[in-house]
Design goal:
This protein is an alpha/beta fold. The protein contains 16 helices and 19 strands.
């Protein structure tokens, strides 16, 4: 049974309400590492904690309960999460009443759990990626037990994973929202742990997604991102193109985006939907990972260089104003200078607005981790720097084309330097001359451009 039954959701709510006297006056903090899906997971965890009676805080120093939501996509993310957990050892020694939990993709991996159990004895509980609906039960157990508790499924990939509806969500923003449309992955790219950490693909019902989006729009949300490991695999009662089109039909000015789309099945139907609807953001994240067909085959990406270029050109042809972004892995096992040159030439040919470049990181349990021909870090670092310089030039050139044009921008308030800023439909960062409340649309005349920022004045 993929869907958690309603009686179980109600049981969790009853547990939450029963804890309120015990948690009265206490604070909880959720620390998040990783992707947008993790951010949304943390919002759902925070919603459940709030229902349990906790006050949610960003200040971990004052929190009585701390949950670290981890990522496992790269080793660096795991090390950061473990380092964060290590910061609380002293606090736990001074105050044994503080409860510390670890969840997320890293917690789902057996070898990392074993490390936590052995090296982090002050972590009170661990739970997996399909246990968010059981947070009240997990907290009750943690508060009442003197032993460490674990809520981890041991099911195989094709049975692992659930969908739960009806639990509260505590959103970090009042105008931007994440809406998952599906969970898990069936692609098994040879470098990736997602299928093992998040289970098999399962889609939310179309009606549930539309109801959530409608509620957000009616509540004043202006930027809504539909989430899925591969949204084009959505199977909740319609195609993804049909779903995002329906999400863009509600009254009011807002944008709908999506993350992310697999090139092997990025459809003409989806391209047409983006082209024909102003409320669907003109942004397409299309991860290529490598420009070499040989490396793509080793990655089990199920497309080659030519297929990717065909899809990218189809997108740009139908939607000239589109922003195409991508992910690239540098230094995948056996990557030669010729393979890297193929990646560089593809980047130049497509003309990406932004690339998220990562140096290959072996993941325990994946096929690529056991491959011969692992690349020296010094070689990967050199290639990383070269590709970054090339992309900076491309991004600068693309952004300069906006000088003299007026761009519709959704204000984010201020950036870290206290400069008014926001995002365009292409998700470009735009700074402007006057403060505007976050969540407000404004028109900005672009006067100058950097590689990853446009600057202008409000019209």
């Amino acid at each position: 049974m993929v869907y958690i039954e309603e009686f179980e959701i109600e049981r969790q709510k009853e547990i939450a309400f029963s804890l309120r006297e015990q948690t009265k006056g206490k604070k909880a903090c959720v620390i998040t590492f990783g992707c947008q899906q993790n951010e949304n997971d943390s919002e759902r965890i925070a919603g459940a904690l709030e229902m349990c009676g906790y006050e949610i805080t960003d200040d971990e120093k004052t929190a009585d309960l701390i949950i670290i939501n981890t990522c496992a996509i790269r080793e660096h993310a795991e090390i950061r999460a473990l380092s964060e957990a290590g910061q609380f050892k002293g606090r736990k020694e001074k105050d044994r009443s503080i409860k510390i939990g670890v969840c997320g993709c890293m917690a789902q991996q057996a070898h990392r759990r074993a490390q936590i159990y052995k090296s982090y004895p002050y972590v009170d509980f661990v739970f997996g990626t399909d246990m968010h609906h059981r947070v009240p039960e997990i907290i009750k157990e943690a508060l009442s037990s003197k032993k460490r508790t674990s809520f981890i499924t041991e099911k195989p990939h094709n049975e692992f994973g659930v969908i739960s509806e009806g639990m509260p969500v505590r959103r970090e923003s009042g105008y931007k929202a994440w809406v998952p449309v599906m969970y898990g992955c069936n692609n098994f790219c040879t470098y990736c742990v997602v299928p093992y950490a998040r289970g098999h693909e399962r889609s939310r019902r179309k009606e549930d997604v539309l109801a959530e989006v409608r509620s957000l729009v009616e509540s004043g949300y202006k930027d809504i991102t539909l989430l899925g490991q591969n949204v084009n695999s959505y199977a909740g009662g319609c195609t993804f193109a049909e779903l995002i089109t329906e999400c863009a039909k509600f009254d009011g000015e807002y944008r709908v985006r999506f993350m992310t789309s697999h090139p092997k099945d990025a459809s003409d139907e989806l391209i047409d939907a983006i082209a024909s609807n102003e409320k669907i953001a003109k942004q397409f994240h299309l991860p290529v990972q490598s420009g070499s067909s040989r490396i793509l085959k080793l990655m089990n990406r199920k497309y080659d260089r030519e297929k990717y270029l065909e899809r990218a050109k189809a997108i740009k042809s139908k939607i000239p104003e589109i922003s195409i972004t991508t992910d690239i892995i540098i230094g995948f096992p056996t990557e030669t200078e010729e393979d890297f040159a193929d990646t560089v030439s593809l980047v130049k040919e497509v003309g990406f607005d932004m690339i998220y470049t990562f140096i290959y990181s072996p993941r325990v349990g994946t096929v690529a981790a056991e491959m011969e021909g692992q690349i020296e870090k010094s070689v990967s670092n050199k290639r990383f720097a070269l590709l970054s310089d090339i992309e900076n030039e491309i991004a600068q050139s693309l952004n300069e084309q906006f000088i003299g044009k007026t761009v519709r921008v959704l204000s984010d308030g201020f950036n870290k330097n206290r400069i008014p800023c926001g995002r365009s439909t292409q998700n470009r960062i735009v700074t402007f001359d006057k403060p505007v409340p976050a969540g407000t649309f404004v028109d900005v005349l672009i006067e100058s451009a950097g590689a990853y920022m446009l600057c202008g004045k409000i019209v």
